[in-house]
UniProtKB/TrEMBL annotation:
The active site is at residue 475. The keyword Repressor does not apply. InterPro entries: 6-hairpin_glycosidase_sf, 6hp_glycosidase-like_sf, Gal_mutarotase_sf_dom, GH65_N, Glyco_hydro_65_C, Glyco_hydro_65_M, Glyco_hydro_65_N, Malt_Pase/Glycosyl_Hdrlase. Pfam families: Glyco_hydro_65C (PF03633), Glyco_hydro_65m (PF03632), Glyco_hydro_65N (PF03636). One of its GO terms (biological process) is carbohydrate metabolic process. The keyword Transferase applies. Residues 689-744 form the Glycoside hydrolase family 65 C-terminal domain. Residues 301-675 form the Glycoside hydrolase family 65 central catalytic domain. Residues 24-246 form the Glycoside hydrolase family 65 N-terminal domain. This is Kojibiose phosphorylase. Belongs to the glycosyl hydrolase 65 family. Substrate binds at residues 336-337, 587-588. GO terms for molecular function: carbohydrate binding; glycosyltransferase activity; hydrolase activity, hydrolyzing O-glycosyl compounds.
Length: 766
């Protein structure tokens, strides 16, 4: 019998360092940040990257594990629903002659932890010395991208020296107090949330082999298995734990058992192989290759790793929270981040995931209608913070750094969320041409959000319509009137509602009759929508070429932010809330967010004027801000500045900078990083008739290559700093590529090389 249970190669990380994130040693001050960076997830199941062994007692250092959609009200966070952690299924405790076997700077100076992004797993390698024992310990953990119910933990110990008594305990521990324990059977545990009644089942199959022979547990408790043996030099010990998790109603136990049976039949080597194949398929669609800037290459791989990890195209009833499944910040709530910062990635490289995210918004449309009606308007106003039902989940208050209790107004006043959702719907339609989605779900969202804005924009005696008492993306200023971002997005939303009505009438008249009857939409109401859109106040000053961020912004106190360079806290903490409110200091991109999303609203040199005006006024108090600044700067040709913003965005999660990531990675910023690269430096823009390219590679990037999907096609794109673009249509019907305002035919099997300085020598490469 072979002494090796799983091939040793599974513990060997990818060679290329730009595919890996490494941590050597153990720094307790940075352990929460490391746990976020090294988290593994698959859109259904996630677990943070804590160390492999606990110290001394069960549950002392639990790995926080999460299941998408497991929300309940706990009495915390103002009584709003929050994402509950489940039991830690990685708990392992070892004792060697009664001494705890742990990983910390004193006991394990050689400890190395690796996030292998190409393979989608976390590995560790360490030489432990405890008493007279010296052992090399390697670990592997993953949550399967092929079978999302499955998690796998492998530990291999090669005993180098010493004969010692060893005690190993594997437990399932640390379930959140919000979960009620219901049933424990051999290999199965059931919990139910206290209020929402969601059932969670976890089944486990732990096994230990010593020199290739299966060792039976000495004792088996309800939630733990224990083994004891004596080591010998040269001994090989392999611990395997397969877990399955099901979130369901009464059939959760059956679902978990079924998944575990599948996984056990495949075995650990088979599970690793299936998982690696699934990740290879994802990387074939989503990888970006950068030559000349290894830091940028690693940052984009880190971003794509977490973006690919966050989505589950098989579940249209969950979305992606602000920290994905990598941490608990914001209670797992869904914000505008999903449609504005994440959806561009999924539309371009994983349309099935994009569709599922938008179907979540369709399934929560009724909650958006209830919110609009409760506040006195028509149509649909989406929750600023959304959980499982789509009802508003923003907490009513927060505690300021000076311990003041502050009311949170975003849940009622940050209303641009409805236009943001509509923007995501339209972006998906343009990118995919998914008629079934538009007909059965997307059009209804567009119509109901447009109807909201028509009722929200109040007609004034001068004939203009104003949207009063809102909060824009710049959340430093509350209760403002005519926020440019909100108003122009509202106007855009209304026009898309009109266009959706026209599409239904012309292409699917039966569906239009059905839906218009259901919504009570009369032809005269649609006519009024156009008038409303045309008369919404925009705040544009044609003389200055500037949009006023909101009514009265230009009259506020200007603040020279360069005087506060190097600060470690946001500007509203430096200046205080009241002075910040009276100043022109901006929390995050607001007018510039509008420039990023609706560039056609900025004619002639208005884009440059607004960027020049608003950029120095932004304090970047949100992790979402620098990415949009980088995107806009790249489009405007300021590639040096754009590259600086790119690396600042990457540092949010990859550097131990001011932004705290202990509560999870900033998934919106990671999506924004991808946007800066693809929609900024590569100059990609989607249209109904073509994909457009206007590349502007930054200094140091000698080559950039990636794939995009558009309306059933897949295109490989390669940009060289020598001003050459190569396009290859790898799948789908012939299409049009628009390169620097010139339309070019792109056929399958006929790559195009396009010079970017005049386009005079476009040629087909056979």
């Amino acid at each position: 019998m072979s002494r090796v249970w799983v091939p040793e190669v599974v513990f060997t990380p990818t060679d290329d360092p730009t595919w890996r994130l490494s941590q050597v040693g153990y720094d307790p001050l940075r352990k929460s940040s490391q746990a976020s960076r090294f988290a593994v997830s698959n859109g259904f199941l996630g677990i943070r990257g804590e160390r492999s062994f606990t110290r001394g007692r069960r549950g002392a250092f639990p790995n926080a594990a999460y299941v998408a959609g497991l929300f309940d009200r706990t009495g915390e966070a103002g009584g709003v629903p929050v994402l509950l952690p489940i039991a830690d299924w990685l708990q392992v405790h070892l004792q060697i002659d009664g001494v705890g076997f742990v990983e910390d700077p004193a006991d394990a100076p050689s400890h190395r932890m690796e996030l292998d992004m190409r393979r989608g797993m976390v590995l560790s390698d360490c030489i432990h010395v405890v008493g007279g024992l010296r052992a090399r310990t390697r670990t592997l953990r993953l949550v399967s991208l092929r079978d999302r119910a499955i998690g796998l933990q492998l530990i291999r110990m090669d005993m180098l020296d010493g004969a010692q008594e060893v005690f190993l305990e594997a437990s399932l521990d640390g379930a959140h107090h919000g979960l009620v324990h219901r049933v424990t059977e051999p290999g199965l545990t059931l919990w139910r949330t206290r209020r929402s009644g969601i059932e969670i089942a976890i089944t486990t199959a732990p096994t230990l082999k010593i020199d290739g022979w299966t060792s039976a547990p000495r004792t088996i408790g309800p939630l733990r298995s224990v083994w004891a043996w004596k080591t010998q030099p040269g001994q090989v010990v392999e611990f395997q734990r397969i877990v399955s998790v099901a979130r369901a109603g009464d059939d959760a136990a059956a679902a978990a058992h079924s998944a575990l049976s599948r996984a056990v039949r495949r075995g650990p080597a088979g599970l690793v192989a299936d998982h690696e194949t699934a990740w290879s398929e994802r990387w074939a669609c989503s990888a970006i290759e950068i030559d000349g800037d290894p830091a940028a290459q690693r940052a984009l791989r880190f971003a794509a790793y977490h973006l690919n990890s966050a989505a589950n195209p098989s579940d249209a009833h969950v979305s992606i929270g602000a920290r994905g499944l990598t941490g608990s910040d914001y209670g797992g709530h869904v914000f505008w981040d999903t449609e504005i910062f994440l959806l561009p990635f999924y539309c371009a490289v994983w349309p099935e995931a994009a569709r599922a995210l938008l179907m979540y918004r369709f399934h929560t449309l009724e909650a958006a209608r209830r919110k609009a009606a409760r506040l006195g308007w028509r149509g649909a106003l989406y929750a600023w913070e959304s959980a499982d039902t789509g009802d508003e989940a923003a907490p009513p208050f927060s505690i300021a750094p000076d311990r003041q209790v502050l009311g949170i107004l975003t849940g009622t006043r940050e209303q641009h969320i409805s236009a943001d959702v509509a923007y995501g719907v339209w972006r998906y339609w343009i990118a995919t041409g998914d008629e079934g989605f538009l007909r059965e779900a997307g059009a209804e969202i567009l119509l109901e959000t447009a109807r909201f804005w028509v009722s929200r924009a109040v007609p004034e005696p001068d004939g203009r319509r104003q949207i009063r008492n809102v909060i824009g993306p710049d959340e430093y200023h509350e209760g403002i009137d005519d926020n440019a971002f909100t108003n122009l997005m509202a106007r855009w939303n209304i026009y898309r509602g009109i266009e959706a009505a026209s599409l239904l009438q012309s292409r699917w008249p039966r569906r239009w009759t059905e839906l218009s009857d259901q919504l009570g939409l009369e032809a005269g109401e649609i006519d009024q929508w156009r008038i409303a859109a045309e008369t919404i106040e925009t705040g544009f000053d044609p003389g200055a070429g500037l949009y006023e961020q909101f009514a009265g912004f230009f009259d506020l106190e200007p603040i020279d932010l360069s005087r506060y360079a190097g600060r470690s806290v946001p500007m509203d903490i430096v200046l205080g809330r009241e002075r910040t409110r009276r100043s022109q200091v901006i929390k995050q991109a607001d007018v510039l967010a509008l420039l990023a999303l609706l560039p056609d609203a900025f004619v002639e040199d208005a884009g440059k004027r607004n960027f020049s005006y608003y950029e120095p006024r932004c304090g970047h108090g949100s992790s979402l801000s620098t990415a949009l600044h980088g995107l806009v700067a790249a489009r405007l040709g300021e590639t040096d500045k754009a590259l600086d913003y790119f690396h600042r965005t990457a540092a949010i999660d990859l550097a131990d900078a001011a932004a705290a990531i202990g509560g999870g990675v900033h998934i919106g910023a990671l999506g924004g990083l991808w946007m800066t690269a693809i929609h900024g430096f590569a100059g990609v823009a989607y249209g109904e008739e073509a994909i457009s390219f206007a590349p502007r590679l930054p200094p140091g990037w000698t080559r950039m290559a990636f794939r995009l999907q558009w309306r059933g096609r897949q295109v490989r794109c390669e940009i060289e700093q020598t001003n050459r673009l190569t396009l290859v249509l790898e799948r789908g019907a012939s299409m049009t590529a628009r390169v620097e305002e010139r339309d070019l035919a792109l056929d399958t099997g006929c790559p195009l090389e396009v010079p970017l300085d005049g386009l005079s020598a476009v040629k087909s490469v056979n």
